[in-house]
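Q: Could you fold this chain for me?
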Amino acid sequence: MKSTNSVFTGLPTTVFEAMSRLAMEHGAINLGQGFPDVDGPEDVRAQAASALMTGPNQYPPMLGLPELRQAVADSNKRFYDLDIDWQREVLVTSGATEALADCLMALVEPGDEVILIEPLYDCYLPLVKRAGATPVRLRVTPPEWKFDLDAFEAAITPATKAILINNPMNPAAKVFSEEELAGIAKLCVAYDLYAICDEVYEHIIFDGAKHRPLMAFDGMRERAVRIGSAGKTFSLTGWKVGYITATPALLDPIAKAHQFVTFTTAPNLQKAVAYGLTKGDAYYEELAGELQAKRDRLADGLARLGFAVLPCEGTYFVTCDASGILPGLDDVEMCRRLTVEAGVTAVPVSAFYGDDAPSCFIRFCFCKRDEVLDEAVARLGRWIRGEVPDVVAG
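A: Sure. Below is the predicted structure, expressed as structure tokens.
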């Protein structure tokens, strides 16, 4: 038999899937994978239901429904003072992962290099490779998560085409500082690089901080591609509605890639997201406030048990140094033991790195009901005290 594609053939099961399977096997509370355990706003869901029944349910425009593209442009102006032409600079995709794939297929090709920042969201590496480009890895390292601008400049070669940046950053829960973003923008301009900006957690930032897109920095309007996600903004991750904002010269090839990947996205979901993006400031403040309270609830509980909890500036995730609880083990074995013995599942942060990864940090997801978070802390506490949870099998 002839060989299949070398990028995807034999690619291991993701850490999320592996840990989720282990959690199911042992009846563990799964704080590994990042999705809420309750659905988002009822009024947004009602809009989707109504649009489904009233139709039309045929192909919407390839670029997306005009009302959603207009709403995305309006949101860019409302939150970031970005003037966006909705007809020429906004594209709707079937989720942010499709948006990433479209951008990479459209902007890079064999011989190009793309700079990635570890810890990586798991789709980045295979998508860059499948686009034919060479990934060049930089990293931020716990507990400081500081981005080294000198290392970024040193990594740039004549073949460098783009940097892919996730801000706020999953899994690090890092929000890039104004200084870091300004430095990245300066180097992108100096070396003529594109910036593919995964900003799906833009509205999930804590402690009064505000998101600032890389596109808003000097010189970046024509070279940054901004990706957003209704799934994160409205806690409806299963809807898979994303959107790309970019200058026409970049959006045109990206839209061509989208045309031949999914072509379009469910029209009723697009209508509902368009409605959702018009919600008042109180909604966005409540979204961040509720998740900040959950962050504090879980982080405080973990700290009381002896986990060394790292700062969390945004996203759904909190990272801990678990070496004080499980000395002598790497993070993969830590997560396995917590799942099997304590009945609580986290994910090893080393899974988001390449070689020489930090090996004592684990990540918990806190976008769950309060009672679930409380029970997870209680289970961990009982396990630390030497009690075995009755619900854990095996």
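A (continued): The chain has 14 helices and 13 strands.
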